Amino acid sequence: MSKVTLVGAGPGDPDLLTVKAVKAIEAADVLLVDDLVSDAIMALAPATARVVYVGKRGGCAQTPQEFIERLMIAEARAGHHVVRLKGGDPYMFGRGGEERAHLLAQGIAVDVVPGITSGLAGAASIGIPLTHRDWSQGAVFVTGHGKDAQSEPNWGALAQSRLTLVIYMGVARCAQIQAGLLAGGASPATPVAVVQSATRHAQRQLITTLGALPDALAASGIGSPAVIVVGDVVRCADAWPGEAVATQETRHAA
């Protein structure tokens, strides 16, 4: 029996892959690939590998998780080296923990290769450190929506934490997120950055404030996939305009 490797493909720039990730991709017999994995990274796959796209983006047609897990098990039991290639990091909102547990329960060996998550890459790409001795002693990575109403993030508590918030999958719910943070005591003047398609040719970003976020985001045309960074560390952004609201588009070489 062969094994399954859960590989973090990072935010899209192939230069940000780890050496171990590249080796795993190049050695794959079967690749199960998320929608957010870039073409430049897929170019590393061997011509002999079977590639199956198993997209799971919100608001789009999705491959059922149960099908993905069954396929990984079947291919591994057939003696193939299966690579489950995920955008970002397998354990950061990627359901990697669920997949590993399910595979281990079936007696299948699993290796996990971490990847650079978009929350780190997006912030760094425009000059934002997620921690700063003057402004933030930590960072919280949080989804913009829970699995259900009971798992909805406690935005009031997060506002009181005074930590940098890195919000995934929050564009469609930015008004609710804004309302929750303001109700929790966050200042409308709190700096906010939104980074779409971090590290890719099409990267775009918005620098604004919490009070202006929904209107500024709608006017910018920025959509998913994007991360939202909330906190005073956004003042370190290359395009920080002081009290003004500004947008900037940056294109990165592959």
Automatic annotation (TrEMBL):
Gene3D superfamilies: Cobalt-precorrin-4 Transmethylase, Domain 1, Methyltransferase, Cobalt-precorrin-4 Transmethylase, Domain 2. GO terms for biological process: cobalamin biosynthetic process; methylation; siroheme biosynthetic process. Its EC number is 2.1.1.107. It holds the Pfam family TP_methylase. Residues 3-213 form the Tetrapyrrole methylase domain. GO terms for molecular function: uroporphyrin-III C-methyltransferase activity. It comes from the Bacteria. Keywords: Cobalamin biosynthesis, Methyltransferase, Porphyrin biosynthesis, S-adenosyl-L-methionine, Transferase. It is an enzyme of class 2 (transferase). Pathway: Porphyrin-containing compound metabolism; siroheme biosynthesis; precorrin-2 from uroporphyrinogen III: step 1/1; Cofactor biosynthesis; adenosylcobalamin biosynthesis; precorrin-2 from uroporphyrinogen III: step 1/1. Belongs to the precorrin methyltransferase family. This is uroporphyrinogen-III C-methyltransferase. It comes from Pseudoduganella rivuli. The lineage of its organism: Bacteria, Pseudomonadati, Pseudomonadota, Betaproteobacteria, Burkholderiales. The gene is cobA.
